[in-house]
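Q: Can someone sanity-check these two? First one:
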Amino acid sequence: MDLCHVPAAREKGWYLALMAPNVKGPNYAWLDPSRLYCHPQGLQDCVADLLQPFQGDPIDMVAGIDAMGFILGAATAAALQKGFLAIRKAGHLCVQTLAQPYTDYSGREKVMEVRTDVISPGLRILLVDQWVETGGTMRAAIQLVERLGGVVAGVAAVCIEDSEGGRWIWEHYKCAHCVPPGLQPRFNRHQFGWD
């Protein structure tokens, strides 16, 4: 899809066609959603779709997960006129942090951290990431927020896959994602196509 083209009918998820499949092999994610961030209307509509379920909900801050969640999270925070908190991979923050180990979508053991001087008890935080595949990364972010006394106001991502971890997140938190129900099975099987 042309990065300047805006379709006449902009149904939920129209911008998903802007994403690009993996052409580099198994060491990379199966799909790269970042191209949709280059399309001005696509990015705006993606953020609007993510925020729709949270209309009227109290949200004090948006937190994005390292690294691609920073782009979507910052755009979401700007749309809400709220502050943005970066939840980082360990070793990148030069301030006091709280750390949480987790297993990412590829099965690698990692650690993420968040600064301890921002989240106060009761602060309502919308967690944003680009993609939730197995749920391990998002669950670690949830644990960090809650260990500091914050409240997870919701979880938003371009896609939340129907994995064990994805289902756990849907069952325990208010969620939003951009994939229409008819396309969800394709995304769960990592199949890219619009026919």
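And here is the second, same format, sequence then tokens:
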Amino acid sequence: MQDPNEDTEWNDILRKKGILPPKENLEEQERAKEEEQLAILQKTLVKTYEDMTLEELEENEDEFNEEDEKAIEMYRQQRLAEMKAAQMKNKFGEVLEISGKDYVQEVTKAGKDIWVVLHLYKQGIPLCALINQHLSGLARKFRDVKFIKAISTTCIPNYPDKNLPTIFVYLEGDIKAQFIGPLVFGGMNLTRDELEWKISESGAIKTDLEENPRKQIQDQLMSSIRACVPARGESDSEDD
């Protein structure tokens, strides 16, 4: 088949009769087609390195031109930041048992922007055991927060049992909140949601609870009391 772009007498006749487009139009179409193919190729290249792991990027870095390398370097830094954030988010996940000698390393030197929740407890105190159980669940839920526990007297010599359970909340070694004694926790009726809310008020965790669970219990209790106490008018009529 004869090339329509070829400079022949026959093609000139066909162009004059409008059967073939003018040669300039053909050249423009060819350029547009080449640019389209180049754009598709570049798009494919970008998509390829976006799907690569950091190791694959290093293996294939010789295949990229200077402009691609700038984009890839930005993408690499973004991936590293995302990986670091993911690692921080899932850094902990369980309650760590420590003693006094571990305090400085695990609390004071916990790291930048690391929240630490320390529970001082003693064996044989039921409320301490309950809080340890709740903290295990919270540690799994809030993996970016360091939850630790320690027998009270190993961290603070002669720490009085009447102050147990005690929870200290730290950020970069500074105490941000403290909860001392059984009355603060509401006794053995303490739920995990109530403890979560209490710790969240210090800023250590971002709870998905919409309101204080203890308030719901208090509201229910007040409703029950009102239902049991007769109105003043009813009481007066009964006395008559």
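A (reply): Looked at the second one. DSSP finds eleven helices and five strands in the chain. The longest strand covers residues 115-121.
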